[in-house]
Design goal:
It is a single chain. The chain is α+β, with helices and mostly antiparallel strands. It has three domains: 25-139, Acyl-CoA dehydrogenase/oxidase, N-terminal domain (Butyryl-Coa Dehydrogenase, subunit A, domain 1, Orthogonal Bundle); 145-249, Butyryl-CoA Dehydrogenase, subunit A, domain 2, CATH 2.40.110.10; 253-397, Butyryl-CoA Dehydrogenase, subunit A, domain 3 (Up-down Bundle), CATH 1.20.140. It contains ten helices and eleven strands. Helix 3 (90-103) packs across helix 6 (252-286), helix 3 packs antiparallel against helix 7 (298-326) and helix 8 runs antiparallel to helix 9. The N and C termini lie far apart (69 Å). Bound molecules: 3-thiaglutaryl-CoA (TGC) and flavin-adenine dinucleotide.
């Protein structure tokens, strides 16, 4: 029998059980997907969240330990088939990105650069020898990869790259140039480097111990501090004929890899936003001012409801893209929709969530300011917000507004 007879409204529980999944979006996932999601979530909660604030403060990323754990979880290149990869669905890959980025965007970067930007081109365009040599070790986290596309003078317009490779008479390739802002660069065992050749833009699989190759770390970042970002310098790097990716010789090569990684970011950003919302909700429930929890103020509730709404909307977009990708019908402009919208949403939620925590919100004791700073990079990399706007603008108008 109800303890509230006579039509009296039952008071709401202090914090609804469904506060974190208001629309029951979990019901859109299969049991297998929920299981994978929960496994990654547990790993992040136990092995990343207690330490990542300190890694961020100190500007370090314990890559060996993390690579081993992620390899054991089977997340590296998980959406690829064969060569030691898990062969999971795109949806599962997205969920892994969501959970890793709920920990830190640097962790998701580590996973998505390895799987989507370094392993994917070898898997999609590589020779059998290249696949056999690198993919099993990369899937296991025993070898780390990076992806060199951006250059000091060539960011949003990578087709203006200057890095070049020329074949000498005995068939060796000689690679020269510089890449900039390369995630994992200084810790990588292998770099997939895109370069201009007489035959078009080609990808090269470069072991990072090759003479003439160096990767100094970029310092003084205020964003993605628990992630390694580097320059790649290539001075007469001599590579055997078999170092080139045989399957592609145009900008389609690198741009198709970006598609994979951008898809993961559409999910990842939601994870970061969810973490900020959760931090704000917890804090608001325990922080008292004027003799009551700040969550009892209408203005705070408006902010919390807005975070929840935006996280749920982002989740629905990500899940929809996941299903489209698994059906093989997801186009690049739809990926731009997810990357642009969800990253912008996450950045706005992070900034506002930070302020719910007052002064405490400016420290790395709590997650929102760290996510906020990280998301500034996510907003810029993998195609800036403006570039994705123009890609979608082109898709709906048929007009190219890039130049
Ligand atoms: P465009 O002339 O339009 O096309 C050239 C060829 O590429 C094909 N293509 C795509 N294929 C697959 N996916 C896509 N998204 C594609 N976009 C274009 C196209 O069909 C064509 O193929 P083909 O066979 O006819 O040759 O290309 P464009 O050079 O004019 O490019 C236009 C633009 C601006 C969209 C492109 O340059 C772009 O996306 N710029 C942004 C650069 C960017 O996103 N860089 C990211 C670097 S990596 C990174 O940031 C990693 S962050 C670390 C982490 O993820 O954690
Ligand atoms: P620019 O292209 O110089 O853009 C500057 C501003 O101009 C932006 O606001 C941009 O939106 C705007 N703009 C440019 N063109 C247009 C236009 N046509 N219309 C309107 N506005 C425009 N790259 C890699 O290759 N591999 C990596 O692993 C990698 N990791 C990264 C990690 C971090 C932490 C960061 C910050 C970057 C990373 N990048 C990586 C580089 C990233 O992809 C580039 O920074 C990004 O593509 C933008 O290039 P840019 O910084 O040169 O900016």
């Amino acid at each position: 029998m109800s303890a509230y007879p006579g039509g009296m409204a039952q008071p709401l529980a202090p914090k609804a059980e469904n506060a974190l999944d208001f629309l029951a979006t979990d019901s859109l996932l299969t049991e297998e997907e929920v299981m994978l999601r929960d496994t990654v979530r547990r790993y992040v909660e136990e092995q990343i969240n207690p330490y990542v604030g300190e890694w961020f403060d100190e500007g370090i990323f314990p890559h060996e330990e993390v690579a081993k754990a992620i390899g054991q979880l089977g997340l590296f290149g998980m959406h690829l088939e064969g060569y030691g990869c898990a062969g999971s669905s795109a949806m599962m890959y997205g969920l892994a990105c969501m959970e890793t980025e709920a920990g830190d965007s640097g962790l998701r970067s580590f996973v998505s650069v390895q799987g989507s930007l370094a392993m994917f081109p070898i898997w999609a365009y590589g020779s059998e020898e290249q696949k056999q040599e690198w993919l099993p070790r990369m899937a296991a986290g025993e070898a780390i990869g990076c992806f060199g596309l951006t250059e000091p003078d060539s960011g949003s317009d990578p087709s203006s790259m200057r890095t070049n490779a020329k074949q000498d008479p005995n068939g060796d390739w000689i690679l020269n140039g510089a890449k900039m802002w390369i995630t994992n660069g200084s810790i990588a065992d292998v770099a997939v480097v895109w370069a201009r050749t007489d035959e078009g833009i080609r990808g090269f699989v470069v072991p990072t111990d090759t003479e003439g190759f160096s990767a100094p770390k970029i310092e003084r970042k205020v964003s993605l501090r628990a992630s390694v970002t580097s320059e790649l310098i290539m001075e007469d790097v001599r590579l055997p004929a078999g170092a080139v990716l045989p399957g592609v010789s145009s900008m389609r090569g690198p741009l198709s890899c970006l598609n994979e990684a951008r898809f993961g970011i559409s999910f990842g950003a939601v994870g970061a936003a969810r973490s900020c919302y959760e931090a704000a909700l917890d804090y608001a429930g325990s922080r008292e001012q004027f003799g009551v929890p700040i969550s009892s103020f209408q203005l705070t509730q408006q902010r919390l409801v807005d975070f929840m709404t935006r996280v749920q909307q982002g989740t629905l977009v990500a899940y929809h893209l996941g299903r489209l990708k698994d059906q093989g019908v997801l186009g690049p402009a739809q990926v731009s929709f997810g990357k642009r919208q969800n990253v912008r949403m996450a950045l706005e939620v992070a900034r506002e969530a930070r302020s719910v925590l007052g002064a405490n919100g400016i420290t790395t004791e709590y997650a929102p300011a760290r996510h906020m700073n990280n998301l500034e990079s996510v907003y810029t990399y993998e195609g800036t917000n403006e570039i994705h706007t123009l890609m979608m603008g082109q898709a709906i108008t048929g007009q190219n507004a890039f130049t």
